[in-house]
Amino acid sequence: MVELLAPAGNFISLSSALKNGADAVYIGLEDLNMRVNASNFSLEDIKKASEMTKEYGAKLYVCTNTIMKDKDIEMLKDQLPYIKEYGADGIILSDISLIELASQNGLEAHVSVQENTTNFYALKTLERLGAKRAILSRELSLDEIKEITRKLKESDSTIETEVFIHGAMCMAISGRCFLSYGLYGRSANCGDCLQPCRKEWKLSFEENEDDDVINFSDCDDESFIISQSYDDSYRTNFFSPKDMALIEHIPELIEAGIDSFKIEGRARSPDYVAAAVSVYRQAIDLYYDDPDNWQFNPEWMEELMKVFNRGYDTGFYFDTPYEISENNQSKFIKRDIGKVVNYYNKIRVAELKIWDDLALGEEIMIQGPTTGSITHVIESMQIDGKSIEKAEKGSNVAIAIDEKLRESDFVYKLVPREE
């Protein structure tokens, strides 16, 4: 059965991933991973994270996939025995010198997408070096991936393949971008990308009658890239691709012989992790239950549209992506409205302290390190034992909710985003 691999930038996201059915979770090690701006995990945190994943029968992989200098290698050499001792199953690396070091410490070596693995021969080489798995380049088509997995099977290879099936796409090949470093001195290749590609860019043209501009794209409409602004300048988001979503193509991906499906997003929120893992878990399980009658459920995409996204397409799997994205296109805004004060197990009631109004029928989201991320529609509220239809800010209000909450869990109200 294919592995569903989820991201976690903190313990709330880790709980969200595990509770919604992730087979494995990947986290970042402080100072040595590609998401400096995520919370990341210390060595001691890895011990707790491993205990949590083992409770769910899941695996834990630790990202160490930045550009490595000698000082970084020496630091990681000292940490690898503890990573193993604390219960991690493997590390994700982009420097192939770490393959041997990982194996010496009893850890699986997973070669990062940063390595830009695009062919069968590269995989065989990585296998000879001791790699357990390689994450294939995002720029491969599904047909190219099928050809690679076919050759691996025919050669009796044991190296595993992993692909991204959901999340952000980068403007650069396998994320090897220098735009952030060139503009701000903050290197994407060391996990510190400030994502200037996501901004709106202003274009200026120098007229030259000798210029010969030719559109080589399959798209005849060139206006999808550039729009004229109020000040008669031209602006574009053409550095910012849409997010990838392969939820409609789970059967093709499973039948391609891929070993692990990866969701991108260690820097994204716990509700994003919860929604993505839940939806793909359902789709994968449905295929294995009855592959011949698998059907895409439109509700899956509705759930994915509720959380942070830049619009969705299928990346390079079926065509060269050309659509661009402006900003977050999720259908809801999370408004911070309160926290959990207490939860009464016997009667399944939570007491909330709210600093914004709350009414029957509204949808809230509760997040916490153990709770994870859950959503709940308010069907019953009480103050001082009396049923109410609306609670005003500053109140302590009781709500009926079956799932156990914890003191100090965060409470958000989901407000529909204005069109």
From TrEMBL:
What are the record keywords, sorted? Answer: Hydrolase, Protease
Q: What is this protein called?
A: Peptidase U32 family
PANTHER family per the record?
PEPTIDASE U32 FAMILY (PTHR30217), TRNA HYDROXYLATION PROTEIN P (PTHR30217:SF6)
Family, similarity comment: Belongs to the peptidase U32 family.
Q: Which GO terms describe its molecular function?
A: peptidase activity
Q: Where is the signal peptide?
A: none
Q: Which PROSITE patterns match?
A: PEPTIDASE_U32
